[in-house]
Amino acid sequence: MASLTGAAVVTGAGSASAADPTFTFSVERVGKSFSIEVFNDHVKAGFADWNADPGDEPGAPGDALQVRDILGDGWGIEAWAATQVGADGYRMATSRGHSAYYASGWKTGNIKEGTPITVEVCAVKGEKQQCGAAYGLA
Asked: In principle, which of 22, 53, 121, 122 could form an S-S bond with 129, CB 3.0–4.6 Å?
């Protein structure tokens, strides 16, 4: 099971109705890189992946964000990353408009090494969303 050390995870934030599933979030870390796992009623639905440095994940660039939607439940995965001071380094990845299984391309750009970042991920369906977040470093 993932360690949540150094991560703040918010569950259930956003707009949802009583008929919607309940989404929860968990963080898996490898060095400065991490994945926020998204669960739809305890079934893994997708991920928001933050890759801090090239080489942390083979073939992935550094300071990069990607989402993966792996559950055909009608909900998409959307994520945003930005530095914690201002919105420097902002990037967004989404699976909206795509069926599962879908992995977005890596959204990249250079951020000064060691800069604190926030990654927020949401399960999205139309105007509905349920979100979680984690904190890390560029």
From this structure: 122
User: Token digits for 63?
Assistant: 């300071």
Nearest by Cα to 44 from 18, 69, 76:
69
pLDDT for the residue numbered 15: 57
Verdict on whether the full-model pTM lies above 0.70 = yes
* Separation of alpha carbons 32 and 121, rounded Å: 17
All residues at 6 or more sequence positions from 80 whose CB lies less than 8 Å from its CB, including other chains: 65, 90, 91, 92, 119, 120
Position 10 scores a pLDDT of: 46
User: Residue 3, class by beta-carbon neighbours within 10 Å (0-12 exposed, 13-18 middle, 19+ buried)?
Assistant: exposed
Which pLDDT band holds residue 99 (cuts at 50, 70, 90)?
Answer: very high
Dist CA 5 CA 105 (whole Å): 28
Q: Using alpha carbons, select from 53, 23, 28 the residue that is nearest to residue 38.
A: 23
Q: At residue 98, what are phi and psi to the nearest 5 degrees?
A: -125, 145
3 state SS of 69:
strand
- Average of per-residue pLDDT across 14-36: 86
